[in-house]
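Dear Dr. H.,

I hope your travels went smoothly. While you were away I took the liberty of generating a structure for the chain from your last submission, since the lab meeting agenda had it listed for discussion. I wanted you to have the full record in hand beforehand rather than looking at slides cold. The sequence, exactly as received, is reproduced here:
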Amino acid sequence: MKIYNTLSAQKEEFKPIGSEVKMYVCGINPYADSHIGHAMSYIIFDVVRRYLEYRGYKVRHVENVTDIEDNIIAHANRLGIPVRELTDKYTIRYFEDMAALNILKPHFTPRATETIPEIIGITHGLIAKGFAYAVGGDVYFRVRNMPDYGKLSHRTLDSMMAGARIEPSEAKEHPMDFVLWKAAKPGEPSWDTPWGKGRPGWHIECSAMSVKFLGEQIDIHGGGQDLIFPHHENEIAQSECFTGKKPFVRHWMHNGLLQLGAEKMSKSLGNLITIREALQKYSSDGIHIFILSSYYRSPLTYSEDAMEAAERGAERLRQTLASPGKTGGEKTNATPFRQRFVEAMDDDFGTSQAIATLFDLAREINRGTETGKDTSEARATLQELAGVLGLTLKAPEQEFSDAGPFIELLIATRKRLREAKQFQLADEIRNRLTEMGVALEDTPQGTVWKRKR
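The corresponding predicted structure, in token form, is as follows:
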């Protein structure tokens, strides 16, 4: 297996440090619904985990929840609610989105606010070693004390300085020094430390959670390309200086960004399509095929045409498995397709070639069915390889079959609320079902539901 390493800017043979692959993926900032740009990243790294496990590796997968940072505090203040109330709501909704996309739950999903002692410990250790300094309740990292700072983004300190700004309120020794700990502001969540009350900076959170759950060195660190600088660059600096210059990560993996038109999809820009909106029109399999049909490091442009084409592709694969097949007699040979699939995925997770292999195998199965061959093993292979890519190949209606009783219960509750003239609560139920992709129709015979497409 070879993986492209952002640090070395080349493909490298994958050799885990120990018997267990340690994998850390940067998670969400839960202050709004996740969009399909997030889905792109988490589908890709879900496939990385699934394929490693398919190849026989044991994987320990950690994905953090950054539940304290500037945007979260600003959104909570605008809404007039506690930060924890906001982050709890959107963390739950994120997990619901991931389940709807058939993405495996990480083994650990730590919150930054639950890792404060470790964050304080690392910050204190960096100060003791001369890599950080406290001033006015803030703590900054000294970039000049790390000679190879900038090695991940392949930039020098001088080139970074060209676009650097220093805020008048900051007392940095150097414009590129970054904050590890922020002094408390009125009304913000804060914790006691030796240098005063405050809260963690963004970058230190991931280092602390990674060290806590995976140790001082890990095999794979993943995230979007927009995180290379400054976030991942700063993770390297603080982690390696704290642990004594041990290489923090063996393989840095970064996915390309999803674009809507000419710009990346972003909560801050407001140009996004949420996962829930996408799932109202397309199946989880369709979204997977749209994302995985391109090389994971390349940018991807969202369009309705591309999504509809991916949905049609998903339906072709479903129909192949759904069509009746003969058992006994000459068999359709699926071995070459399995080999092609593994070769593609071994070469830096070549999902586009892997998806193409699934469609070629489906065509072979369909030909075998037409000529009376036994296609049972080939169908099992198609289902197995599709599963490695996170595809269920279930009919969209079948995806809701297990949820049917729950939906019926909600409809009955809505009926009782309407009878009691509690229309606002009744409308909330209808809106939530709509978000789940369930359309309600009130008829003279009662309320019926169906999946929205």
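Two observations you may find useful: DSSP finds 16 helices and 16 strands in the chain. The radius of gyration is 25 Å.

With kind regards,
E. W.
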